[in-house]
């Protein structure tokens, strides 16, 4: 994928919440309907379909007849990766409009008992009792604390910052529910050092985005959001080096590709919408992307650096911690809203470019996460581009 060859032209976000009573395929169908209406496109315009997460799609139920339908799974990196894949398929001449779709009824598992506990395992350490994403990400947090003196209060600053964003955003889990640092500190310990408010919660909901060529995007109903650059990396590389816990992801190669394609530097980014399953995650990513030096993520949050008037507003809709969990599509959707100037009371003063990330899955052992990132912009030309 090159520079600004493709754009997102349709966004569909269904109701998000707990116990919605809708099955996954209905949530995905509704998300696609909303995205088509947003773009002003007919149903048969979708000639490529990518479902985030591995399972067959009921195309008959959805009323779609694309040239291809693909299921994709690389954990929380899947949504960003699906957009990268969609752009590649368009540039390869295999489709003109690709729908990238997520929709799951996650909270239904809690009442039906259908969730397989094995899905919470992360490779062979599961045999020794290591279960759950919280336990594995806790390794990152404890290592960061050991190396840099990061504290639980620093993690709490992440949770409070994101809740402050969500408080004024209707439709989020945190809407109208402010959170103080004292409340964070008083919340129950889940897995050391994570407390309740350091962790995301499962929600039900669907999100769909429509991707097409930049040329076609200019002639559609909605304001296009251009894909300026993208990159991927895998933390298995750091596992082999014995540095897996020091690195939340292998961001260096992903950053180099994304910013290289965009012709930009981190100083050209107006906001970050980062994958945040736990409070340590956006903190470590801001460091890895060069927003702050290693070890300075905690003070950065504590001093308001990730707030709306800070140096890098981050997860401005509340993120997965306080808005809703639609895996990596939470940040994608918020970036699109901000870039379009459609974030309502939460609209940033400057929103021309956005860094978006996804993270998840593993390569057979805990903490070997996949990573995908992209730079989105209102303008098809990157700020730093010379041609």
TrEMBL record:
Location of the Thiolase C-terminal domain = 251-363
Q: In Gene Ontology terms, what is one molecular function of this protein?
A: acetyl-CoA C-acyltransferase activity
Top-level taxonomic group: Bacteria
Name assigned to this protein: Thiolase family protein
This chain's source organism reads Mangrovimicrobium sediminis
